Amino acid sequence: MSGFNALPRTTAVVASSHAQQSVEMSLTRLPADVRRRWEETRQALWARDCVMRWAEQAPTAMAGLTSVAQVDAHIGQLWLQRRGDEMDEVLRVLVAAVSDGGQGGELAFLVLVRRLALVVVKLAERYGLGVSSVVASLWLLVADYPLHRRPQRIALNLRLDLQKGVRRDALEATRGTDLRGLGEDVEVLLRQDSQQRFVEVAGRIDPSWVVESSQCLSADPVAAVYASPLPAADLTDGLLQWAGQVVPAADIELLRMVFATGTPRRTPLDDVARHLGLSPEATRQRLQRSIKRLSQAVVAVSAPSGEPTCTWSACRLHASQRDLQAA
After folding, report:
1. Nearest Cα residue to 169 out of 119, 123, 232, 117
2. What are phi and psi of 22, to 5 degrees?
3. What is the pTM of this model?
4. Which of 72, 107, 265, 314 could anchor a disulfide with 295, C-beta 3.0 to 4.6 Å?
5. In b/e form, how buried is each residue of 187-199, taking b as 16+ CB within 10 angstroms?
6. Nearest partner of 53 among 114, 87, 117, 103, judged by Cα
7. What's the pLDDT tens digit per position in 99-111?
């Protein structure tokens, strides 16, 4: 007997209450855009369809659940009560959804990050990183989680893997380039004027599409690469020109090879691997590392001061890698 079950009933109730309070407090410390996306996504009409699909895939652990709110509350209870088999059944469904991508993947990740919020906040405090950076690392970790090899004890595996990854990132950060004082170009990602500043920087290559670009940019330039009707190579080149100041040159070279010809599906991973003289698996690993570094650089400078915002499109750079794997 372990956990709360090993405690006297009164003590267990108090411990459970304190644990729940800690979780609730950690939820308030998640990045503002994560909390906003949760409120928007959980109330979307399509979210109910996702829940019904998840319930079909996890008939024991999610029986009778019909709303996102019910899923969130139920998983919270499973988490606190340490009901391992049911927890694994639910997490297998959510992790698979994140890996598949799309709206259901984002919703599944939001559910997961709420359950891991306390871990995320504590790791950020322990290693001196922004909470947004840890959230981005969690996204990458969940999307790549090997369900076929590690189908049990998923919650524990995610916590341990996240801790190892964050510790490694913290060590790299102490040896890496200091992102402060890089000058005006870095400010293309500031919240208040990111659109105009990105146009100014990226437009230096070909000013003819600057005016048109300003009509289609979303809140951050990474999304603009995919949202713009203009050639993706032009927009990507502007982003990578900025990124060259904050991530290693080898990463920029690889990212430029992958993205410069347009959408990710137009550059098969095998072609990139042959050009580099590497195996597809080694190239995939290098690409994942490069995307992760670029994502973290975006997060690190996405706010003028205080806690950086966790740009969803920065996290979604990982989806581009999955497209390459499928191509």
Report:
1. 123
2. -65, -40
3. 0.56
4. 314
5. bbbbeeebbebbb
6. 103
7. 887 778 889 999 9
